[in-house]
Amino acid sequence: MITSMSPSKPRGRDLITDIASLRGDFPVLQQQVRGRPLAYLDSAASAQRPQAVIDAMVAQDSHNHANVHRGVHELSERSTDAYEGARTKLRRFVNAESTDEIIFTSGTTESINLVAASLGTQILAPEDEVLVTRMEHHSNIVPWQLICERTGAKVVPAPITKEGELDLDGFRRCLTKRTKIVAITHVSNALGTINPIKELIALAHDVGALVLVDGAQAAAHLPIDVQDLDCDFYALSGHKMFGPTGTGILYGKATLLDSMPPYKSGGEMILTVSFEGTRFNTLPHKFEAGTPNITGVVGLGAAVDYLSAIDPDALADHEHELLDYATDAIKEIPGARLIGTASSKAGVVSFLIDPIHAHDLGTIVDREGVAIRTGHHCAMPVMEFFGIAATARASFALYNNRDDIESLLKGIRIAQEIFK
After folding, report:
1. What is the pTM assigned to this prediction?
2. Which of 148, 174, 231, 378 is an active site residue?
3. Is residue 378 among the annotated active site residues?
4. Domains within the chain, CATH numbers bracketed
């Protein structure tokens, strides 16, 4: 089921509880694809944008376009206010203590690479270990492998169960005095599993390890409170939470970020430059070299506004109902196999329909206007664990309804007829 959590921050207005009414906010859903109403079931890859986000980005480009910071003219001041205003919104969204702890990045992938490259060179040495899990996205595996190759440390994978849950006893066994960093997903993109992240963070801190949480799949579905979780770093992507691609944040505890060397160099991340040496800027700008994705960040701020207006309990109930409905329906299909049956899940159903290859299934349901993801979902260790090459994955967001699922089921029946 989808875990329902209390909001992590006070809300100053009535929250939207009628989730079904929000579908009309998304212009892309008002079209037909291949002569059929679009059933978009690929939000785990990239969620669609509401009109409010599109409008905010158009307004920025139409009226306020200028570079941020240091400009003294009107357009630069407007642009800077919108850019830094988005940082304040993100601080509230994850309940960080300070805007200094919110670093704008191009997304979760860059955020993880930043921590691996900057922190990893500082604290990892031969025989040290970075603990990940077997359900991680490649973006939370490969950066750690690269930094371990440079430092002599080792990546250790914590085991998962046949249900697609983290093996907690196995996780505890993997934690040792050699563990310096734990990098773990909040919600699995391939399985939908919601990890008991607060408990895992506490276990890691007990052995002195720092914790990075990959929150890419959580941000659109679960309230996030980094102070309550006590994570050291939290990464998320704008395009998973109804914002634009190429945007995201890295949250980091200020004391840690302050101690870390810059990840990239150039303009903005400096205070003074001379041939005798360079003094770096203060947080958060130390990690934001070069001209940023200003319009994208403004759009990300609008996405935060949009999400923050929605009652999290109503959202959880809506997505839970869709998840249950789809899971039960797919279970009844002859030849169906569900991949990932954890007791606590977000809106992701990964499955196979024997003897149809996942890619063939995806192509056929697309003819019915249904968009699903097929493949290994950048989680090849998950596929290896289950002894498969790929799955079909339907993923849900607030704009989905039962009609979308019925369209998927119709497409599956057509595929079965073709492969009979």
Report:
1. 0.94
2. 378
3. yes
4. 19-45+311-418 (3.90.1150.10), 54-308 (3.40.640.10)
